[in-house]
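haha ok so turns out i had the wrong file open the whole time. this is the CORRECT one, sorry everyone. sequence first:
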Amino acid sequence: MAEATATPGTKAKLVAAARSLFAERGIEGVSLREITRVAEQGNTRALQYHFGDRGALLATVVAPFEADVDARRGALLDQLDALPEVTMRDVASALVRPSAAMLDVEGGKEYLSIMAEVISDPRRFAAEVDPVHPGLDRWVAVASRLMPAEVDPLHRRFAAIQLCASELGRRSATERRKDHRLFVSDLTDLVAAILDAPMSYETSCLLAERDSR
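then structure:
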């Protein structure tokens, strides 16, 4: 297998090819052989040598972006900790802005497309990508403290995370606008609304009915 490492940058080329193809065609919509071909690797076993399987390759593709987003979110949450009063929009911003920053990072749009798929079905990819990493876990705790207590059983936080991921994935697929400020602000409003929306009488009745079974 030594020949698989002969070309400098082989691993980086494979990661770049996988990121592009995963974003364009879906994580399971492309073969490992095609990734190797697009990466211009003559050795068909190069990918297996460096990563082992698709799951390990996926984890490697998203890892640097996840670390970047986590650091940005942690910094924003540190700022919130220092404020005398925190609004739900502040909390929503700490979810949206770190991920939205990837729209302007090289390879970031592809990452956002991939994560939209991962978060739409987290159990399917749980072994490779944990959608609730430390920064996001901390955000969930902050959101929980501010949300109306009665909506806690409704999984509003995950709904907000899914909306954020899907909208950023959609945005990453368009080249129509380079200025993302309006999009980010509106998405922040939507996330805040999900977290802060009161429970209707109809929903509260259905929740009580479910809990009584």
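Residues 1-6 have pLDDT under 50 and may be disordered.
again sry for the mixup
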